[in-house]
Amino acid sequence: MKTVKNYLSSILLVFVLLIIWEIGARVVNMGFILPSPTDIIVKLWELKVVLFVEHLPATLGIILIGLLISVCFGVGLAVWMSLSETVERTFYPLIISSQTIPIIALAPIFVLWFGYSIWSKVMVTVLITFFPITVNTYDGLKRASKDYKDLLLTMGANRKDIFFKLQVPACSPYFFSGLKVAVTLSVIGAAIGEWIGSQAGLGYFSRRMMTQFDGAGVFAPIVLLSAVGIGLFLIVVIVEKNILKWRKFD
């Protein structure tokens, strides 16, 4: 109940915007360009079997595999950079440079390399989610208190003790902050990959509906993609609160 009150203003704003959208769509009366929210809901219901049984699992598979790869390699590289200045100087500029390349330009290249398999979409997802996880985790590892480190050293702690008892707890909030950004970006990455080249998935289905000038059909999978992103974000928040019980959450 307290959570609902905290976000009451946001809920009201969304409700007002939906009403304005509904009225505007009815006045324009061009459903193939601007469908109303009710038209989209009706279309979601009509396509529930196709979207939820055929295309949603394909998109979820891309998102989860991409996130798993990003977490494993991102955290591993962040730890490696925190332990070696040479590695940090070698890889950190490359990580930053990777984000200056437009994802939409690389997606067709991945299709050329991997074809229409799942891996072309996974690579797009990895490229877009790898950065926040790696950079945030690395920043967290480097921000471990030097005073605490000195204290542990005077108590006879070795490098392993300092890493697990100081650096890991210190970087955990940073890791989850990066993961919350990554899960929302993963939806975008999967949709871009499916839009460029795919035979299944919500992004693919939205593009197919566009060729049929079905406005509500274009928006229906987009709404579902948004719901997936919100759901993944909330899951990360719940996991974070359960793991970092020592941290104060508002």
From TrEMBL:
The keyword Cell cycle does not apply. It is found in: Cell membrane. Keywords: Cell membrane, Membrane, Transmembrane, Transmembrane helix, Transport. InterPro entries: MetI-like, MetI-like_sf. The chain crosses the membrane at residues 12-35, 55-79, 91-116, 122-141, 174-196, 216-239. It is a multi-pass membrane protein. Its main location: membrane. Pfam families: BPD_transp_1. Residues 56-236 form the ABC transmembrane type-1 domain. Gene3D superfamilies: MetI-like. Belongs to the binding-protein-dependent transport system permease family. This is Hydroxymethylpyrimidine transport system permease protein. It comes from Metabacillus niabensis.
